[in-house]
């Protein structure tokens, strides 16, 4: 039987024991670090997320505590190629196993393929959602095909032509000294 748990902060152990689920649609400003990545935060832009807890039986000992999260948002950013707006879809679908303490988590994290976190009776689920979405942001946001023509040249031909027409500032000095005369 699944139950809806609506407390904040989240007791992950109790959430998993109850096979709890939680879903929300929070406005972007609630996630300050994620909002800072947006080029033009829109007032009605929302982070959609869900979490589900479960206990997974193991052959020896107590069952493992797991938390599965899903989250998504389409974040407005600036294309680094053409400098025009682009909406980058970010999506997270990840599971985490929880262990008794930080020491155990650190020891198991090195040898395990799983994402392992330490149990905390006051676990902040919103921060985990934000952290995971932040890690999904591309290093260089850009369009596959930019909507405007992008100049990919380092040298501007018009600038080079203007430089070649302009006399060198020391040419007149060289003439006075008689070095440039032939």
Polypeptide structure, described:
- This protein is an alpha+beta fold and about 180 residues long.
- It has one domain (about 10-145).
- About 25% of the residues lie in helices and about 30% in strands.
- It contains six helices and five strands.
- The chain has helices at about 10-15, 30-35, 100-110, 125-135, 155-165, 170-175, and strands at about 20-25, 45-55, 65-80, 85-100, 115-120.
- It has a five-stranded mixed β-sheet.
- The radius of gyration is 28 Å and the shape is elongated.
Summarize this structure as a short list of keywords or feature phrases:
182 residues; alpha+beta
Question: Outline of this structure?
Answer:
Residues about 1-5 have low confidence and may be disordered. The protein has helices at about 10-15, 30-35, 100-110, 125-135, 155-165, 170-175, and strands spanning about 20-25, 45-55, 65-80, 85-100, 115-120. About 25% of the residues lie in helices and about 30% in strands.
> What form results from the Cα inertia axes?
elongated
Radius of gyration, CA atoms, in whole angstroms: 28 Å
- Euclidean distance between termini CA atoms: 100 Å
Indicate the structural class.
alpha+beta
What is the subunit arrangement here? single chain
Order of adjacent strands in the largest pleated sheet: 1-2-3-4-5
Helix content: 25-40%
Number of domains: 1
Q: Number of helical runs?
A: 6
Number of strands: 5
> What is the percentage of strand-forming residues?
25-35%
Tell me the series of helices and strands, N- to C-terminal. HEHEEEHEHHH
Mean residue pLDDT: 86
Low-confidence spans: pLDDT under 50, at least 5 residues? 1-7
